[in-house]
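Explain my protein.
***
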Amino acid sequence: MKLHEIKKGTRAVNPVPLRLATAPLLEPGVDWETADDGGTVIVGVRILTGEETSIALKEAQASVSKAGVPHWLATHPLCQLHEMAQLVAVACVDNDSRDEPFFIGGAAEVLGDIAIGSDNIVYLAQQIEDWQSQVSPRGKEIGNEELFAAIVREAERPENAQETFFSRLRQKERTSCIHSMAVLLSSLLTSRSLTSLDSIPSSSTNTESSLATEPMPAPAPPPTTKKKRRKR
């Protein structure tokens, strides 16, 4: 069977809330995702094809070159910003029609419209990556045994050696692993702290308590010196 013989489905679109940068301030306790003051809109985030991703990356390289970065560097802040803007422009669609782009003006509108702002660009780019991870056939839950084994391998890996397991994970999977490892480390540190407190002898604790409650003796007055009388 060839690819063109396989029945194609429709492209998956995920509705996500977007709080505009020009939205009014909310009262404390009001959820911005469900606020009905007109400042929160729903944007459709769709899965990209390889061609769309390729075009977005080429456009990002061209635009960042015009912005003053002669050579593309993935860790450069301008390169990251322009790459996110291009991907956001092509991946965000009208949530009602799902065929029309949300940003009619493309990446230039993403970067220049005051209602978006840099924080929303990062937010939308993260939503795109998360949605891609959810619908990806490679997406799967990482069990505790697999995570523990990966942690052991990572601990035994030389610092400059190539890492494989964590580098293959998508952003959402890495975030989940980091959270799980943080929970494990927090539990370990808490148990060690309690063990340290339990190992302190009760006598020393009582002594410290009595010292803390006993009043300190008043300081002795400074010695007085007699003045010599002058001879006349």
Remarks:
- Confidence is low (pLDDT under 50) at residues 204-213.
- The longest strand covers residues 13-19.
- The chain has two domains: 11-24+31-135, 144-196.
